[in-house]
Amino acid sequence: MERIPSARMMIRFLLLHCLILSFMIASANTTSITTDQQALLSLKGHVTDDPANFLARNWNTSNSVCNWTGVTCDVRTHRVTALNISGLNLTGTIPSELGNLSSLQTLDLSFNWFSGSIPASIFNMSSLLSIRFTNNTLFGELPPNFCNHLSNLESLFLKNNMFHGKIPSTLSNCKRLRNISLSLDDFSGTIPKEIGNVTKLIRLYLRGNQLQGEIPEELGNLAELEMLWLQNNFLTRAIPSSIFNLSSLSNLDLSVNNLTGELPANICNNLPFLEILFLDENDFDGKIPSTLSRCKHLQTLSLSINDFSGDIPKEIGNSTKLKYLYLDQNRLQ
Asked: Which keywords does this Swiss-Prot/TrEMBL entry list (predicted)?
């Protein structure tokens, strides 16, 4: 007959098992924390000018990485989840080791002087929710497989750098994107129609680039879009009718392009929240629609430097929230 193990032996076995498991978890966490520390120290090593000695004073191995200024850790795992060193006037480059922060959710290097290209490892950080590199001197092209590993990304801010090339159509694979800011760079080519598949978008900023071609009809699929800035490009043809059906839109700026055609007579039928409309410095013609008065929340209307003709609609006087009205340099009579 087999002997049944005593209760005491079973308890000892379970305690030993738990002890081994705890040791393994602790060891893994220690390794991960060391990896995070090394990644941040690599970033520190790639900074060539730190005018306020911010990293020199705050980032040293005598303190836990979770106590470093600008670093946020998860309270349970002690892994780095946020890095915010914006506005410190740091000069340097972004090391590939930064991609080893495998639990990072927020990466903010804005308002510094980082140069060079974005390392490919950054685009493999599947935990990232927000990338903010606004106002640096970064350059290069965005990879064609941009969103292959960034399925959780919600915000992408690359404004005011020196990025060039085409805007990747694969941005549409970042299904959770709420904010895209690629303004004041040097992007060229057309606006990818696939952006119309990013249906959670609230803000789309593409101003101040070298974009050409027409505005994709597919942008009309962005039912939650509130801000659309496409000004200061080289966009052509008429505004797609689908844009005027974006009922959440509050701010539309298409100024300083080469857009043509007449504004639709029902321009405000489906724009109940529109507050700002900039269409100046294009080639629009025809009459100014009297139905603009149906945009009850309109505060700024700029139609300057176009080819509008006819009378100024008296109905605009019903737009009682209007603060700024620009109609100069047309053929109004």
From this structure: Cell membrane, Leucine-rich repeat, Membrane, Receptor, Repeat, Signal, Transmembrane, Transmembrane helix
Specify whether the CB–CB gap between 279 and 251 falls below 8 A: no
Classify 280 as helix, strand or coil: coil
Instruction: HSE, CB side, 13 Å, CA atoms: give it for residue 248.
Output: 15
Cα–Cα distance measured from residue 42 to residue 48, given in angstroms and rounded to the nearest whole number: 12
The ranges assigned to domains in the chain are 7-332
If we measure between CA atoms, which residue out of 127, 123, 91, 128 comes closest to residue 109?
A: 91
| Helices assigned H by DSSP within 47-112 | 54-58
Q: What is the pLDDT of residue 28?
A: 41
- Reported as a single tens digit per residue, the pLDDT across 126-140 is 999 999 999 999 999
Q: What gap in Å lies between CA 286 and CA 34, rounded to an integer?
A: 66
Q: Is the dihedral of CA 156, 159, 164, 167 positive or negative?
A: positive
Phi, psi of 143 (to 5 degrees): -65, 145
pLDDT of residue 7: 61
Q: How far apart are CA 127 and CA 130, in angstroms?
A: 9
The alpha carbon dihedral of 235, 240, 244, 245 has a sign of negative
CATH number attached to the domain at 7-332: 3.80.10.10
Give the containing element (helix H, strand E) for 165: strand 162-166
The percent of residues in the chain predicted with pLDDT above 90, rounded, is 87
Task: Give the separation between CA 315 and CA 297, rounded to whole angstroms.
Answer: 14
Q: Taking residues 63-82, report their average pLDDT.
A: 94
Closest CA to 243 of 176, 232, 256, 259: 259
Strands 234-237 and 210-214: parallel
Measured CA to CA, the distance from residue 59 to residue 65 in angstroms comes to 8
The one-letter code for the residue type at 15 is L
What is the per-residue burial (b if ≥16 Cβ within 10 Å, else e) of 254-293? bbbbebeeebbeebbeebeebbbbbbbbbebeeebbbbbb
pLDDT at 315 (0 to 100): 95
